[in-house]
Amino acid sequence: MKNIIFKLHILGIVLSILFISTFFILQPLFCYSLESKLYKVRSIKIVKEYGKSLDWSRARNLIVSERVGEDGYYHIFLMNPDGTGEINLTRNKAGSPQKHNGNSTWHPSGNYIVFTAEKENDPEKNKEWAIPGTGFNCDLWVMTSDGKKFYQLTNYPLSQPFKAVIHPQFSHNGKKLFWAERIKRGKSFGGGWVLKIADFVIDNRGPRIENIKTQEPGEWSCFYESHDFSNDDKRILFSGNLKSGQTPVGLDIYELDLETNRLRRLTQTLNDWDEHAHYSPDGKRIVWMSSTGFNIEWGDISGHHWAKYLKTELWIMDADGSNKQRLTHFNTPGYSEYMGGRRCIVSDNAWSPDGKSIAALVACESFKGRLSAKIFMIPLE
C-alpha cells in the first residue's frame, strides 16, 4: 500500500510539472486567443455621424477629420473631442484645392495640418480613386490650423495615372514628414508602393519639404501604409504585405529602425488584415485595427471590392508586439457596441493627449449593403 501511495505521489508531481510547463509554453497563445483583459473599455459613444481619417492634436486637444460635402468630395473639418464646435477648414476656402481633401495630420506644434489633395484638373472619372486613403492623382498640401493659408508641398504630373499619395505623418519634433506613395504599376493595390521621409522646413518662404528619401523594406514590390513615428523619432510604424506571395489583404504591422534599417514584424498573420497602427503617447503601447479571428472568405478584391468582405476590430499590444488584446467588439453579439449583425470595419484611430481615450473611425454596413462611417470615442481603463 505504501508503495502504491508513493507511486501515486510521484505521478502527481510529474503531472503537475507537465501542466505547469505546458502552461508557460503556451501562455502567449492563451493571452492572444483568450484576450487577457489587461485593458478595459468603458462606455463607447458616437462623437460624429460621419468621418474619414482622423488625427488628434496633443498641443490643441482638437480632432481633425473629413466629411463628404454637397459636391460629393471630401473636405476637412475641425472639432472638439466631444464633437462640438465643428469648423470647416477647406470647403470654399481661397487657396485650398476643391476636390478630395483628406488624410489630415497635425504638426506637433498645432499650427499646421498636412493633408492629401486631389489635383484640380483630375478628370471626374477618377473621382472614386482619389478619395483620402486611396489617393490617386493627389499631392501633399499643408495649411495653417485656422484654414487661412495653404501651401502645396508636392506637384506630381497628372500623366502618371498610377501615382498615389496617402497618410502623411509628422515626427514628434516636427522636422520630418513620412508618407506612403505609389510610384509604379503593381497588381491591384498590392504593389508599386514605397515609403518616403522628407525634411519639413518652415521659414520666411513658408512650409516646404526637402531631402526626400525612399524606403522599400520587404521581399517584393508590395503595398505600404504609413502610420507613425516612435517617440524618439528613430523608428517608423507602417503596415504592408512584405512577405513574397503575401496577399494584399494579409497586411502586417512593422517597425523600421531608421538608423540601422532593422525591421521588426509586430503582427505575424499572413492572411489577416492589420493596419492603422499608432503608438500611445508614452510610447509603450500600439493600437491598431485587425481582422484577426474572423476567418474572412475573400472573393474579388480588385479595385475597392475588398470592402465587401472586410470586418475588423480595434486591438492593443505592447510596443514590442507582445500582449495582444482585442479592445472592441462591434461585430460580436453580447457587447454594448455590437451593431446588430451589420458588418463593421474599425479603421483609422488616434490617441487622446493623455492616453486615456482613443478616437476611432468605424464604418458599418447598412441593410442596403452600403458602408457608413462614424467617429467613436473609446475610453480606456
Please tell me about this protein's structure.
It contains one helix and 24 strands. The protein has 381 residues and is mainly β. It has a four-stranded antiparallel β-sheet, with no helix packed on it. Strands 2-3-4-5 form a four-stranded antiparallel β-sheet, with no helix packed on it. The chain has a four-stranded antiparallel β-sheet with strand order 6-7-8-9, with no helix packed on it. The longest helix has 32 residues, at 2-33. It starts with a helix and ends with a strand.
What descriptive keywords fit this protein?
mainly beta; 38% strand; disordered N terminus; 381 residues; Neuraminidase
Determine and state the CATH class. Mainly Beta
User: Hey, roughly how much beta strand do the residues contain?
Assistant: 35-45%
Task: Assign the structural class, choosing from mainly alpha, mainly beta, alpha/beta, alpha+beta, or little secondary structure.
Answer: mainly beta
Principal-axes geometry comes out as globular
**What is the CA–CA distance across the termini?**
56 Å
Secondary-structure map:
Blueprint lengths: L1 H32 L11 E4 L5 E3 L6 E6 L5 E6 L7 E2 L12 E6 L5 E7 L19 E7 L5 E3 L11 E7 L5 E7 L10 E11 L2 E10 L8 E6 L5 E6 L11 E6 L5 E3 L8 E6 L5 E6 L22 E6 L6 E2 L17 E8 L5 E9 L5 E9 L2
Antiparallel strand pairs: 1-24, 2-3, 3-4, 4-5, 6-7, 7-8, 8-9, 10-11, 11-12, 12-13, 14-15, 15-16, 16-17, 18-19, 19-20, 20-21, 22-23, 23-24
